[in-house]
Amino acid sequence: MLRIVGRGRHADSELLASYRATPSGGFLSSKGLLVAQQWLAEQGWLTREGTTLGATARSLALPDDDETEVARELVRAMILDSLPAWLSASTARGEVREEFLPEDASALFEEMFDDDERDAILLAAASKYDAEALRELGEAGEDVVLSACRDFLEARGRPDLARKARRVSLISDAMGWDISSPNLAGELCRLEVKCYRGRDPTVYLTRNEFEVGSRRPRWYLVLCRSTGDSAPEVVGWTTLTPLIPRMPVDVVLSAEWQVTKIRIDASELRPGLPLDPADALADG
Fold this sequence. Notes:
Layout: H1 2-5, E1 9-11, H2 12-21, H3 30-42, E2 46-49, E3 52-55, H4 57-60, H5 67-82, H6 87-90, H7 103-112, H8 115-155, H9 159-162, E4 166-167, E5 179-182, E6 188-197, E7 202-206, H10 207-215, E8 219-226, E9 233-238, E10 259-263
Parallel strand pairs: 6-8
Antiparallel strand pairs: 1-3, 2-3, 4-5, 5-6, 7-10, 8-9
Helix pairs in contact: 5-8
């Protein structure tokens, strides 16, 4: 397909004529090639302008003298881009579990890659899957915390303050906190939201979040928990104080930590939200 399109641009009628004339030993029909064309366009390998189709920079980066390697690259990209539903189960605990690979996927990998390369592809895709899942989970948690802040303030007769609660992560995710909300005294609170699945709170804290939380007053870590398909629920909050002893320390100037994984004990969390000055810790 990509060989037929080549490096130029072609009209649809020209491509269809080429598909009909392409010898395939009866394995591919022109209709099948049109389906492949549509998939390649959806995946960013081909680009459409009006009634013409041409190669993208992505497809031009493929080797032009080794069709077997082109096929391998397409399979690699397909797994990394599509993140199939079976990926999570087949890469549990950081290793490939062959018993959870679908038969067609297993046969494809066996034909095209050795076991080491197969594992590298699947584990790379799993890492990407985890990152996207964490992003979606985090966004859901931020929505829940924003609504909870507004509900908290409105329930205490302060709709004027509730209107000032904002999700600042929509402006930039580099601020070091996700939600800005006044407390009952009208003081600005900065809430970094972390959402997790499972029973025990385990979160990823960036160096930027840690340093901002260390410098800015009324910075709090708010945890949400998601179970199943239901919306996350606010579990509680803490300041940085109990976490500082567990934070990494740079040993040499040439290597700096940027993200750390922290397990938080339930006893370190205070219930609700840190929007009542009587409850919030003074060193927050």
